[in-house]
Specification:
The chain is of the alpha+beta class. The chain has ten helices and six strands; from the N terminus they run H-E-E-H-H-E-E-H-E-E-H-H-H-H-H-H.
Length: about 300
């Protein structure tokens, strides 16, 4: 029934499966990229792997998890694979996963995408546990560069906003920056819970603790960037609102000056016959003088009220 269930899966990568085997002194490492159902079924029969875990290893967007089986352990971890400038809204766009089946005699890694750290992995390991921890360390390290990039991006955005050069950024930029930070932080927190479930031999406890410390440091970094992103977005909205208020204030001041002047112009623009001022020789200049006095009074009043 297990084989029939697995064959019912859809959406498999059509790229040819690549299986690499490397024999160490005490264990074997089998690395499968672009997994093929037939190969995985054969591997499941050969090493008595659970078919539901095989299904999880094929699921593209699966979150990190750890399961202790009778003869082996099963784990899924995700590595950061996106471009740091990508506009990311979900975990599948941000990262890709590696599934691990491991015990003392074997380590099986299953992944759809190619990883540079797996291709270039050069470590001298005496146990499968050591190799597993080395790969885990490389996967956690993939989050280092994005954290630095996001932190620098926050500083740049902050500089543009406070130096009145915020035309170079938009609310959309801030949203995607905040989104990437939030997703990365959540993923690292899930990964931290998975790694805390692991039990290793005394010889590997120090190496595993180093990974836990690195994870904690990255989570704190992303947490700080996340807080800065929220504050930055609020600051951006406040600055934008302040700009709108300044424009409205300027328009109000202009209106306050021109409204009484427009009223005077409107009265003398009616051209009734019975308007004595129209017959005055200096009426035009007197009217201009009155308008100037009105404008001066408004200006003095604004200055006293500290409006301008």
């Amino acid at each position: 029934m297990g084989l029939k269930f697995i064959k019912g899966l859809k959406g498999m990568n059509t790229k040819d499966s690549v299986i690499k085997r490397k024999q160490f002194d005490s264990f074997i490492w089998i690395d499968i990229s672009h997994p093929d159902l037939n190969n995985l079924n054969k591997l499941a029969e050969e090493y008595q792997l659970d078919y539901f875990q095989i299904r999880d290893s094929l699921e593209q967007g699966h979150l990190p998890k750890f399961e202790a089986h009778g003869d082996y352990n099963f784990m899924i971890l995700r590595a950061f694979t996106a471009n740091v400038n990508d506009r990311i809204t979900n975990i599948s766009e941000l990262s890709n996963k590696v599934a691990f089946f491991f015990n003392d005699k074997k380590l099986i890694t299953v992944h759809r995408n190619e990883f540079a750290f797996l291709k270039n992995l050069e470590v001298s390991c005496t146990t499968s546990e050591e190799l597993l921890i080395a790969i885990m360390h490389k996967m956690i390290d993939t989050f280092e560069e994005p954290s630095s990039h996001l932190s620098n991006q926050v500083d740049d955005f902050e500089k543009h906003i406070f130096l009145k050069n915020d035309a170079k950024i938009s609310l959309e930029d801030l949203y995607f920056q905040k989104s990437q930070t939030r997703i990365s932080k959540k993923l690292l927190q899930i990964t931290q819970g998975v790694i805390n479930e692991m039990e290793v031999s005394p010889a590997s406890k120090s190496a595993l603790q180093d990974i836990k410390d690195r994870l904690l440091s990255l989570i704190l970094t992303y947490d700080e960037v996340a807080d800065d992103s929220v504050n930055l977005m609020n600051t951006y909205l406040s600055v934008s609102a302040q700009k709108s208020n300044d424009v409205m204030k300027l328009l109000t001041i202009f209106s306050a000056f021109f409204l009484p002047l427009t009223f005077i112009v409107g009265i003398y623009g009616m051209n009734f016959e019975n308007m004595p001022e129209l017959q005055w020789q200096s009426g035009y200049f007197m009217t201009l003088g009155v308008m100037a006095v009105v404008a001066a009074v408004i200006y003095v009043w604004f200055k006293r009220k500290r409006i301008i």
